[in-house]
Amino acid sequence: MKKLLCLAVSLMLLCSATALAESLFTPGTYESVKKGFGGDVKVTVTVSDTEITDIAIEGESETPALGGVAVETLGPAILKAQTPNVDGLSGATVTSTAIIAAATEALTKAGADIAALDANRKDASEEAAKEEKTIDTEIVIVGAGGAGMAAAIMANQAGKDFVILEKMPYVGGNTTKATGGMNAAETHYQKEQGIEDSVELFAADTMKGGHDLNDPELVRTLAEQSAGAIDWLDSIGADLPKISFSGGASTNRIHAPADGSAVGNYLVDKFSAKLKELGVEVMLNTKATELIMEDGKIAGVKAEGPDAYYTINAKAVILATGGFGANEDMYTQYRPDLKGTVTTNAPGATGDGIVMAQAVGADLVDIEQIQLHPTVEQTTSMLITESVRGDGAILVNQSGHRFTNELLTRDAVSAAELAQEGQYAYIIFDQHLRDNLKAIEKYVKNGLTVQADTLEELARKLNIYPYFLTMTMNAWNEAVATQNDAAYGRTTGMNDNLTTPPYYAIQIAPGIHHTMGGVKIDTSAEVIDTNGNPIPGLFAAGEVTGGVHGGNRLGGNAVADIVIFGRIAAESAIEYVGK
Ligand code: ADP
Fold first, then answer.
1. Nearest-CA neighbor of 28 among 112, 103, 111, 110?
2. Cβ within 8 Å of residue 352, ≥6 positions away
3. Ligand 1 centroid to 381 CA: how many Å?
4. Chain centroid, CA 38 distance in Å
5. pLDDT digit string (tens) for 48-99?
6. Pocket-forming residues, ligand 1, beta carbon under 6 Å
7. What is the Cα–Cα distance from 402 to 498, expressed in whole angstroms?
8. Which of 167, 291, 309, 345 to mutate to test the pocket of ligand 1 (most atoms within 8 A of CB)?
9. 158-182 per-residue burial string, b: 16 or more CB within 10 A, e: under 16
10. Cα distance between residue 435 and residue 430, in whole Å
11. Which residues are catalytic, by number?
12. Is the pLDDT confidence value at 399 over 70?
């Protein structure tokens, strides 16, 4: 009897222990909302007693290309891992963190022990042995930013067999960061709008802007082919009809989308749509690791994808891998003085193409020429657009004094900031300016702005002696009234004074923006080796190359570079494989 009782008790204990082990959640649907990058992110999880069965993520984001990808990819990852603690999407940290935090909260509401979920994560042994795969094609395009996608459209239209690899889970690269437009001269839009311009003037402005370090032949090609590139963009539905003035140009030359939206995301969306329409699939999450050479000629690339290691045999390779502004080791190798500088770059900008090209003998040009952008918020690396200064904001240092003409070239303003105590400054503006510049809402929403009803209060919040800030602002408003900035000779961005409260400040410092140097190419986008000869079958376009921008890139010339040389690289590769 005693024995029987014992058995019953142990069975009960065993049963309840099993039940405990199996029941991870209280079945039902739970939700949680967290603050994302451009608004709220809502996560709704549905659980059975042992499993996360469904997850829905809703989030509006100001960077759909990135935040949108995080919204799409993290849900499946959480379902697969059966824990909310999955890897965030690099480049979309804020959105990823919000999704993971909201999923954690929702699952906690469902009674989950998150540590136990982590301990039992289901994707832990997923790094199963990858297959070895071989692909035979004519052309490999490495990188699906602006240059790579332009090349891919061309290759498709020429009926070539090709593959396009992108190491990130999304396309666009640094191209998505371009806010202004594309420089082009003698375009039909300029003619229709009565704007006089010439190829010669565009080339001269670009050389001057680049401190004459640029390769004049590449610059000439850029200028000559710019109007044709605008026509080509028209032909694929990516019109850039809105023309305005941009720093360093002698006339109105920068072409932007009709609605004034940022050119980078616009082109990436249009290029993606075109590729989709043409049935071209970008191999995402697939990183080229090495160029294959045979008998002194390019023979393909090695790459690594999520499930396989690839050997891609091809006659020609187009490197469109972008710059190296997101690779601190690499930029400090060439510019030790930039150690610790934040970057505005997309996370894929790690210089892979430069390293791969060098390994097969490519020469590099102007590799130490790195452009700093002077107004980058340092905790988020968010770029505060030039338009804030263009619309009338000023820069003050920690003592409350101006220290430069705020609208000098990016390198000059950055240098002036770095000469200030603490190597930072504040960008100051008022409500009137905020009302007229949409971009500012994003900065406010993300908590980057310090706001106050009076200048004295603003100064106190910034730890500046109020008297100095007030004096500075009075002097500036006087300069606007008389259109005479005796202190620093500023002549632009002086239409409106800064007198409408509340007042705003954002603390900023320089950030790495564009790597102007890179692989040496000729005007056919052939990569040139250290002996001055083309490497047969190797082509490159966009930020991976050097020579187009020299010592300083003009706003509007990065987009010109990727579209024009992306097309040239494709034309050259098409001709080469046709031989
Ligand atoms: P560009 O403006 O010259 O087109 P982007 O930065 O816009 O340059 O695009 C470069 C693209 O190349 C990015 O999307 C980046 O993630 C991708 N990329 C960089 N290195 C590799 C690599 N090793 N394999 C595949 N894609 C790469």
1. 110
2. 142, 167, 287, 288, 321
3. 20
4. 16
5. 999 999 999 988 654 555 677 787 888 889 998 899 988 887 777 778 888 9
6. 142-148, 165-168, 172-175, 287-288, 320-322, 346, 348-349, 352, 542-544, 562
7. 14
8. 167
9. bebebbbbbbbbbbbbbbbbbbbbb
10. 9
11. 410
12. yes
Ligand 1, atom nearest to 542 Cα: 3
- pLDDT score of 164 more than 70: yes
Residue 132: other Cβ atoms inside 10 A: 9
Average pLDDT for residues 284-303, to the nearest whole number? Answer: 98
How many Å lie between the centroid of ligand 1 and the Cα of residue 166? Answer: 7
Spatial distance between the Cα atoms of 31 and 29, rounded to a whole number of angstroms: 7
Going by alpha carbons, the residue nearest to atom 15 of ligand 1 is: 348
Alpha helices in 399-533 (DSSP H): 410-418, 431-436, 439-445, 455-461, 466-482
- The full DSSP string for 185-199 is SS-HHHHHTT----H
In the three-class reduction of DSSP (H, G, I as helix; E, B as strand; rest coil), residue 535 is classed as: strand
| Spatial CA neighbour of 518 closest among 341, 320, 337 | 320
Evaluated on CA atoms 563, 568, 573, 579, the torsion sign reads: positive
The pLDDT score that the predictor gives to residue 5 is 43
182-183 vs 28-35, strand pairing mode = unpaired
Say what the pLDDT of residue 360 is. Answer: 98
Q: Is the peptide bond before 502 cis (omega within 30 degrees of 0)?
A: yes
3-state secondary structure of 437: coil
| Domains of the chain, earliest start first | 24-119 (3.90.1010.20), 141-369+516-577 (3.50.50.60), 371-511 (3.90.700.10)
Backbone angles phi and psi of 293, in degrees to 5: -115, 140
Q: 49: which DSSP letter?
A: S
- Long-range contact list for 521-524, CB < 8 A, 24+ apart? 521/218, 521/545, 521/547, 521/565, 522/217, 523/217, 523/218, 523/220, 523/221, 523/568, 524/568, 524/572
List phi, psi (to 5°) of 102: -70, -40
